[in-house]
């Protein structure tokens, strides 16, 4: 799913292109690019191919509406309190997503898949049509949340049949962390992994940092440039990838769990995450509650998520930037 805007990778000039290997694919409903610098060609090709295979497997496992592991779990949730055996790999994902949901005060809530489906965003093609407000309210009142999911040993169930998992705001970041760990294990010291705008850096590109451009939410060009240090990750949530317009109003895929309606008042939120084993995941997750919190609550939401580097663009195009992020961004993109 195209949950995040695309950050164009800007390969720095002055470095030999022969030392750079790049491979692209289309996974998670978006463009994926792996760029490796300074590694032997055979190693770069082999490692990139394995990462893309892993991404493809994750895509099928975690897809919210196509047949796969997540779809089977959702079928069990709908029959609560029925239980079934859980795929071992899903246990840490459920636990991790639950922790982030609690940390966000519920603004990051992968359990609201029924609301996302109701709005038509659990589809590759959606139409400009508003759901029945009564049905929206019914799902909000059902109050599905990650804490409703119970994992007991190798069995799982939900205490709330309204739970329907949609990990679109988590999966790409999780995949970044898995890919970065794998590339490092293979001896690759310099790489950039880009999954539809969620990016993580390993090492650097030659004698300079990896540089990415943060896409302008209303123009076909970057609004700013950002140099990434080893292990840092950046992610953006925007209202311009998956959305529809009706009667002059834009409705995007980022749903406010409190109201059941798409979040309004923000065009995009970009977060920069410090190095760590979960940097990629946090780059995917943290931008969502900050986006939903809006102009009046974004700073408090960022603090809850432990994120210091944030840029928010409101509905009128006004920029809000933390002091830490201001020092890292280069708005001179021409």
What does it look like?
- This protein is α+β, with helices and mostly antiparallel strands and 334 residues long.
- It has a single domain, classed as T-fold (Roll).
- The protein has nine helices and 17 strands.
- Strand 7 and strand 8 (198-202) form a beta hairpin.
- The longest helix is centred in the first third of the chain and has 22 residues, at 41-62.
- The radius of gyration is 20 Å and the shape is globular.
Element order: H for helix, E for strand = EEEHHEHHHEEHEEEEEEEEHHEEHE
Q: Enumerate how many helices there are, as a single number.
A: 9
**General shape:** globular
Protein structure class: alpha+beta
Largest sheet: 8 strands, antiparallel
User: How much strand?
Assistant: 25-35%
Mean pLDDT: 93
CATH topology: T-fold
Features:
334 residues, alpha+beta, globular, disordered N terminus
Task: Give a brief rundown of this model.
By secondary structure, the chain is an alpha+beta fold.
Task: Show the helix and strand layout.
Layout: E1 8-9, E2 20-27, E3 30-37, H1 41-62, H2 69-77, E4 83-85, H3 90-103, H4 113-118, H5 133-142, E5 149-152, E6 155-158, H6 171-185, E7 191-195, E8 198-202, E9 210-215, E10 222-228, E11 233-238, E12 243-246, E13 249-252, E14 266-273, H7 279-285, H8 287-304, E15 309-314, E16 319-321, H9 323-328, E17 329-330
Antiparallel strand pairs: 1-9, 2-3, 3-7, 4-6, 5-6, 7-8, 8-11, 9-10, 10-17, 11-14, 12-13, 14-15, 15-16
